[in-house]
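Input for the complex:
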Amino acid sequence: MRHIISLLMENEAGALSRVAGLFSARGYNIESLTVAVTEDPTLSRMTIVTSGSDDVIEQIIKQLNKLIDVVKVLDLNDGKHIERELMLVKVKATGVYKDEMKRMCDIFRGRIIDVADNSYTIELTGSCSKLDAFIEAIDRSAILETVRTGASGIGRGDRILKV
Amino acid sequence: MDSSTHPATDTPAKSMTGADIVVNCLNEEKVKFVFGYPGGAVLHIYDALYKQNGFKHILVRHEQAAVHAADAYSRATGDVGVALVTSGPGATNAITGIATAYMDSVPLVVISGQVPVPAIGMDAFQEVDMVGVTRPCVKHNFLVKHVKDIAPTIKKAFFIAKTGRPGPVVVDIPKDITAHVADFIYPKTVEMRSYNPILKGHNGQIKKAVKLLLSAKRPMIYTGGGLVLGNGAAELVKLAKALNFPVTNTLMGLGGYPATDKQFVGMLGMHGTYEANMAMQHCDVLLAVGARFDDRVIGNPKHFTSQKRTIIHIDVDPSSISKRVKVDVPIVGDVHSVLTDMNEILAQEENQHTEIADWWKQINEWRGVESMDYATSDSVIKPQYVIQKLWEVTKGDAYITSDVGQHQMWAAQYYKFDKPRRWINSGGLGTMGVGLPYAMGCQFADKHAQVACVTGEGSIQMNIQELSTCAQYGLPIKVILLNNRYLGMVRQWQEFFYENRYSESYMDSLPDFVKLAESYGHVGMRITNPADVEGALKEAFDKKDKFVFMDFVTDQSENVFPMVENGKGLSEMVLSPMTQSRLKGDQ
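Predicted:
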């Protein structure tokens, strides 16, 4: 099953490689991993999208907690949560594509953030499955380039991951 | 940074170089021995240690041995072991030692030199990314980039190494900052928001566990290296005695329960006794203490769990619980603390009586199989016999180190360890070559103790250069070489699983070990006759101030039994041919 794991860790050199190394050393899946500093500059917040049986997820959480630099770990799937991912897609904007891409962008509530002679760059935010759906919806041969950030997640309401 | 160390307020700061700070930190930690080897990147530190008289530096002959010796020193004493190596090859040579300690959860602080900060990443001479290379085999590691960070980092390194589930911590220090000057303030305490191991067990869980133990019809206590490391042996004995339960130890846990006690059923696992493995498989309530159900211990986990039993598991590391086998009553905490609580709760129970006479009857029937029996011989030395005599001659009170292979299993099976921290071996990583440096670490830990290194002719040659270190420091170690001219365990597997194709497992061109020992100024002995074994051992141990290398020429074809083959269940042991034919005769 797919899980979104959030964690807070010391914002120190090498902290990211400890997490990445743990996943590769123990053979856990990483679908995506995003990390950036928080409002407290000593802390980084990471979101990891992974998949595995309940036993594997339990081990992943335990092993992450065991890393000395990791302050807190939360499996967002344990409760209500929101996930968002940002995607930039450069698509062909010639001939029929010119209108079609604009229309699809509007349907998915995206924005065209760059217009060139032959292409648009579309910015799209949403759950990972929404971004997948956009890719599915447009003509594959029109895609010139895609960049995705991987998911960021946060708990709903009072579910707060903080030190 | 929120993870902070609190400086001592009462001691006035003194200005000194980074190298002097390193040395002063080690003395603040009351380190007695530092095992190491000098080199370019640590020259400032070596100069600083030359000028102090706190700890003693032990010069080994290879960095791997420095880490192994520090590791054994820690296993024997419970203190943090310390090793000091230079950058690049010095650091990489230390890796096997670090990984060995990591797998067996031994607290170490390894200080490695690094190229100067401006040279990092420039492919400088003797540069290696030590923090990167060691990351998968340390509890934690640090690269110190400012002289003012040296003291707080070393303080944290010791704290992390010895608390929670212990482990090795590497502190990588670039050469230039050991020359820089800063005020020396050694923090008194450490607080880290990201690291707070749970030590006290959950009271409700402990109560539940006690109730379960009292209701058991076929109970079993299974303890591992964690019981020894966590100094919980005395509390465990108290608990087992109060309940009259059978106890088994893992390879790493030997000495956690006295082997000569009648409740002890022997070691369990791949080469465990018949009674230990059968009782482990057929018990209804299992108390696991500081053990991790690993592949060499429970065999095939599917087969193991096919038998229904309720498992209580005490461990300081939550990730060890329900990793390979689902546990019913997990108790996260320090084994000593949890067992103390357990004993207190048990003492308050009105009815402490358990009805397990039938279970003991069953266990004694299994004991009747006598799975540790072996064919004796008047003409060729049996390796098991050497260990039995070693136990007698040393009155069961020696520090026994081993290397890895058949001799390791025989030492574990036939030397009856009554005390914790006496059996020093590489259980997790299975590192050939640890035996001799381990013996050095033990002898430094207890200079008047009897220390024996049980080894094979393959393993001993992996760190044979340490014969020189032993000569330099006059260490009266006794090497018990069970010389069968084969890589015995490899040969055994080739015999069982590869139709006797002994691929590269024969040890040809062996040195004359007697002459080799003598060339270092040691005593060498070669024993070929079974009748001479006991006398030779007595003679060797009578030489109280001499290093004696005993080359026992043993039976080439002896195998280790019982054996749970790879992928098989615990109760599917192969017994020795002799035991099998005796059992057939009995019927």
